[in-house]
Amino acid sequence: MPGRRRWISRVVLAAGLALAGAVAPPGVAAAESNGGVRVMPLGDSITEGTQVPGGYRIGLWQRLSGAGYRVDLVGTQFNGPAALGDHDHQGHPGWRIDQVDAAVTGWLRTADPRTVLLHLGTNDILQNHQVPSAPSRLSALVDRITAAAPAADVFVATIIPLASAGQAAAARTFNAALPGIVQSKVNSGKRVHLVDMHAVLTTADLIDGVHPTAGGYDKMAAAWYTALRSVPGTIGDPSDVPAGGALANAGSGRCLDVPNGNTANGTQPVIWDCSGAANQRWTATGQALQSLGKCLDSPTNATAGTRAQLWDCTGGTNQRWNRNANGTISNAASGLCLDVKGNATAAGSVVHLWTCTAAANQVWTGR
């Protein structure tokens, strides 16, 4: 029998984050960690996710999780919705390059990231702060980052477009200097990489002329993901996830089962004696969990006690599941975990959605 499978991605969310968009009050939430490769999203409000809490980090996390990468986002800041499995970051709304430069050494020494994602410079332009020398300040910041974290790979992004014509021109001039800056770091033996984020978005992707829409942030996520995958080691290697295997419940020893192989929409899974039959085989396809051609689904606006069900696959967030390091399986839309109702262990016991506790009746092992 294959060995115990490794599940990825996040620890159980802190209280108060079950609703999409919820943000923990400052000082309340402890940093999340799943022991994965440490990645620091570093920048300003576009890293923080102004207008769309979590910003590009949502789509990036979902891509990493769905592909089996185990990544630990790090930083002193914390925000975002339940669909974001790790809320830590180092994005500071309104901050310029010089302000980040003044604090970055301490952040890096505390977080010890393997990888840094840097998108910064927008506020230098918006605040008209010594704009001609902004590229030089960014170059000095990159040097400070590589000095404080010499083993880290640093991905430097061009800043995204701005709607104001004058500011847009200044952004283009700033961005034009970045390839030469990055190449100079590479020539000196530093692990620095350029990501052309400006080319990924247009002003149509901006919600307020500065910050992206949800779709714009997702375009940023895709660009970061492509860049990270192009440099070995920056996000580790994909974990081993079941492909057509069973999911055994730790509390009962029984397997997640589609009753009688019924594929009608709304069929509620149960636990049953593990048999290896087709109605107990679950395929991880990205973040979807599929059996018998249908997807495991959390009904829209699910609350604790809502039934889990099979449904036609749609690709919606209610059919995306985070397979967490502690063995729980949580829904990206609701933040709730797959749970054997009432801690039952008998064959035929119902599987529903419940607040994540990591109790044995919520722990699932791939076979």
Describe this protein's structure:
With 367 residues, the chain is an alpha/beta fold. 24% of the residues lie in helices and 20% in strands. It is built from 7 helices and 20 strands. Strands 1, 2, 3, 4, 5, 6 and 7 form a 7-stranded mixed β-sheet that branches. The longest helix has 23 residues, at 165-187.
Estimated share of beta-strand residues: 15-25%
Provide the structure class.
alpha/beta
Count of runs of 4 or more consecutive helical residues? 7
Quick check: average pLDDT? Answer: 88
CATH architecture of the largest domain: 3-Layer(aba) Sandwich
What value does the Rg take, in angstroms?
A: 22 Å
The N- to C-terminal Cα distance equals: 8 Å
Shape: elongated
Helix-strand topology string: EHHEEEHEHHEHEHEEEEEEEEEEEEE
